[in-house]
Amino acid sequence: xxxxxxxxxxxxxxxxxxxxxxxxxxxxxxxxxxxxxxxxxxxxxxxxxxxxxxxxxxxxxxxxxxxxxxxxxxxxxxxxxxxxxxxxxxxxxxxxxxxxxxxxxxxxxxxxxxxxxxxxxxxxxxxxxxxxxxxxxxxxxxxxxxxxxxxxxxxxxxxxxxxxxxxxxxxxxxxxxxxxxxxxxxxxxxxxxxxxxxxxxxxxxxxxxxxxxxxxxxxxxxxxxxxxxxxxxxxxxxxxxxxxxxxxxxxxxxxxxxxxxxxxxxxxxxxxxxxxxxxxxxxx
Length: 284
Known about the structure:
The protein is mainly alpha-helical. The chain folds into two domains: 2-214, no CATH class; 224-277, 2-Layer Sandwich (Alpha-Beta Plaits). Helix content is 50%, strand content 4%. The protein has helices at 2-8, 14-17, 46-54, 65-74, 78-91, 94-98, 101-110, 126-141, 151-155, 158-171, 173-176, 181-199, 203-207, 210-215, 238-242, 249-252, 263-267, and strands at residues 224-228, 273-277. Helix 3 runs parallel beside helix 8, helix 7 (101-110) crosses helix 12 and helix 10 (158-171) packs across helix 12 (181-199). The longest helix has 19 residues, at 181-199. The chain is globular. The two termini are 27 Å apart. The model has no long low-confidence stretch (mean pLDDT 91).
């Protein structure tokens, strides 16, 4: 994940200048949660792109349910949605396990303590609520005649503050003088996620990330899959203890929560877990 973080954020000199890269690559979405406003970022965040496109929807003149639906579909962000769907179809949530910069941040904090708490199982469903409400619905509802607001990016995303907000504030005195309640709110979210990452495995990925929620359903049918050979498995549960998202791997290997990081395969003493291309008719 360290290499992918550098790949998605190669313009490191911009941190010192407090400026953003504005070249042609910025028009291209990357498949991970990587803030557009990060000084070093080469591309655009797909979650941000989804919201920005939806904020252009104007429902003026809509008088029926069908007219509202047509107006929504007219501005629907097919490019960003299609990119994510393609990536999900090919590799599922492997993006989360191998490439995500904010996943790396949580992993590094997690190294502070060895014994992690499991957390509450039902919290995993929060990220689906965040995806539906903060990404697809609220940005449209906040339309004020001039445009809507990217609700997730503006009010929730801790990765945005870490990658963009803090570096820009450090580099630009004018931004420091303009800090208000919104910065305090997002700083509180980032601080909470950071503390939780010390005691729980990748809490943001498991409980709040809308991109993880988007990719999760694709795990069931993506081309790349993890497979468990039940005849070889000795049920030692080493895989479950190593899982960065606290899954019971022997029961949830095809779960949408799996980030396919390969840790379970690495620690399996009998080689019962494999990562490969899905074959027709195969199942875990």
